[in-house]
Amino acid sequence: VPPMPGAMSPADVAAAEQAAAREQVPADYGPLSPWWMLPDRQELEQDATSLARSRAVESLRSEWQPNEFGGRDVFFFFQGSFDWFDNDPDYSKGVRQLLRTLRKDEPLFKFQEGKSAHYVNNLRRSVFCACPLGFAPWSPRIYESIMAGCIPVIISDHIRLPWDDMLDWREFSVKVPEAETIRIKEILLSIPLDEILAKQRKIREIWKAFTWQEPQEEGDAFDFLLRALKLRLGGPTRRRHSSESASW
Q1: Closest residue by Cα to residue 78 from 58, 36, 106
Q2: Is the whole-model pTM more than 0.85?
């Protein structure tokens, strides 16, 4: 097992949990409505609407401290629904249900079902954060993870990620094919520690690309949107690395 960067002591973990409880973090971290859409502009919609706000992202953005990259004592974290309310067998194409079976007797994994006031704190404690598909390929967990400095582990075969003509998602995330979910522990443990640290540093460098800043700043979501529009003025663009690739 690779050593955890800046692992927290049990006393630090308890103190962090108590602090989160005092903050009374809202329990509902579901995605809110996208704040704008451009009809009939499919490429831009894929970029802009995938950055939909969530309460967790807003909380993390307001509290972001670039030096808070230590203190991660959880190797792999997921919180959310494993089944749809009516047990629809098509929900997540079985990926989340498989994750539930993997959590049994697995000390490296921290899984919680439903909602919790400690969601944001758990993201901050984790090295890798699971971002599986639900009914749709997209998940707000990708951006919540980035805001918390947790490396997003994307499990969604047909997702198109924002800004992939300007950012190389291989540098700050992991993508696992849906069919390889059963191997997720093996895949993550095979990543060298120096590569984990490099991904964390890259997140620290690019996190603003997924948030609106007030006032607007270079490198934030609005800046990237303007760059995307400028690139599209010249016609189809060549992406640095297609986010639709099967894995990385």
Answers
A1: 106
A2: no
| Angle 141-147-149 from CA coordinates, rounded to 5° | 100
* Token code pair at residue 163: 């800004």
Residue 221, both tokens? 């979501």
> Residue with structure tokens 């030096």?
67
Q: Which of 143, 136, 139 is nearest to 167 (CA)?
A: 143
Please state the length of the chain: 248
State how far the Cα of 130 lies from the Cα of 128, in Å rounded to an integer: 7
* Closest by Cα among 179, 91, 186 to 133: 91
Q: Please tell me the distance from the alpha carbon of residue 147 to that of residue 160, in angstroms, as a whole number.
A: 19
Query: What amino acid is encoded at 147 in this protein?
Result: M
How is residue 118 annotated by DSSP? T
Element (H, E) at 147: helix 141-147
Question: 154 with 109: CB under 8 angstroms?
Answer: no
Q: Residue 155 — φ and ψ, nearest 5°? A: -120, 85
The owner of tokens 């016609």 is: 235
| Residue spans of the chain under pLDDT 50 | 1-8, 13, 16-17, 19-53, 64-69
Nearest residue to 200 via CA among 52, 70, 110: 70
- The predicted-structure confidence for 180-211, as pLDDT tens digits, reads as follows 999 999 999 999 999 999 999 999 999 999 99
Distance CA 225, CA 234 (A): 15
- The full DSSP string for 202-223 is HHHHHGGGGS--SS--TTSHHH
**How far, in Å, CA of 164 to CA of 69, rounded?**
24
